[in-house]
Amino acid sequence: MFDLPDDAVLYAALNACDPAYEGRAFVGVTSTGIFCRLTCPARKPRPENCRWFASAEEARAAGFRACRRCHPGGATAEGDAAVTALRAAIEAAPGRRWTETDLEDMGYDPSTIRRAFRRHFGMTFLQMAREARLREGARRVAGGDAVIEAQLDAGFDSASGFRQAFARLFGHPPAGMRVAGGLVADWIDTPLGGMIAVADQNALHLLEFTDRKALKPQLARVSRDAKGRIGLGSSAVTRQTSDQLAEFFAGGRSRFDLPLAPHGTDFQRRVWNALTLIPAGETRSYAEVAAAIGQPRATRAVARANATNGIAIVIPCHRVIGADGTLTGYAGGLWRKEKLIAAERRYAGAA
């Protein structure tokens, strides 16, 4: 999948802890028998003690053991034990109101945790926890519970804080979300975190991870294009989306069969259509996608369209990587891109 550059380039990347090769290059240290990410904080080996691998599987096959500091066998975020533990804590108690004092009581330095979460997810731990509380409240409101009850369940100190959080995300307070104006929003749990699906009875309009920073403008665009507000609830399409995502992550579905209504320009829709033709288990460069739509010089425009895709996973923008094989960015988080590409290897070669 990725032809490694020469040893000098890789050794320089190792010394610089260069994230550009994350998930695409690993170093095996012959003096210890351990293999690491190039971003591992451990002491750097001598160049003559380094062997280079394009995958964790290759390193294991050569007899190297995974480093316990950078966890090279998992996604990038999983290399940080604190991040993994705190994300699990949010999932275990999504309605809990976390504070920096809680982090200190657990033995963590709040500033370190803040930097780690921003690096991996583009938001702090406390912001991620707040999103989880908001999601719990949204579920209660969608089920018809009183707003004040949902607010208390979600752990917000005041009804106004709860309403303000909803208004920032959807553009109107929760009381206005009981009656859907043609579009409904539903939360879907996946192994990579919560997603919000927006659909009517005919098509899926948006599917995004709930912690993505661009979710709010995405929702605003869909609502504006639909000339109506988005309500909380479910439709046949959101339920179908949830079922197919579950099959995809379980290894039973390599392609999605969902009616789609992506919101974008004609050029963006051409790019997104080309992405749906990339088989699961394969990747393409931005230049290859540009050539596929008949505009080989539009590489940068393709990259922008890829970044603005509002139907994640189903329109597989995660299958587009840099020309040199590096993962490059992913709006849902680079760690998710790593996970998705790794999960889809089981589908390689499938029709």
Overview features:
single chain, 351 residues, alpha/beta, DNA Methylphosphotriester Repair Domain, Arc Repressor Mutant, subunit A, four-stranded mixed sheet, 14 helices, 12% strand
Describe this structure in words.
It is a single chain. The strands form 3 sheets. The chain has a 4-stranded mixed sheet with strand order 3-1-2-4. A 4-stranded mixed sheet has the order 7-6-5-8. It has 14 helices and 10 strands. The protein is an alpha/beta fold. Helix content is 42%, strand content 12%.
Question: What's the layout of helices and strands?
Answer:
Elements lengths: L6 H10 L9 E4 L4 E4 L12 E4 L2 H6 L3 E2 L14 H12 L7 H6 L4 H12 L3 H18 L4 H8 L4 H12 L12 E8 L2 E7 L4 E6 L5 H11 L4 E3 L3 H14 L16 H11 L7 E2 H7 L6 H9 L12 E2 L12 H10 L8
Give a summary of the structure in a few sentences:
This protein folds into three domains: 7-73, DNA Methylphosphotriester Repair Domain, CATH 3.40.10.10; 76-168, Homeodomain-like (Arc Repressor Mutant, subunit A, Orthogonal Bundle), CATH 1.10.10; 179-351, Winged helix-like DNA-binding domain superfamily/Winged helix DNA-binding domain (Arc Repressor Mutant, subunit A, Orthogonal Bundle), CATH 1.10.10.10. Helices cover 42% and strands 12% of the residues. The protein has 14 helices and ten strands.
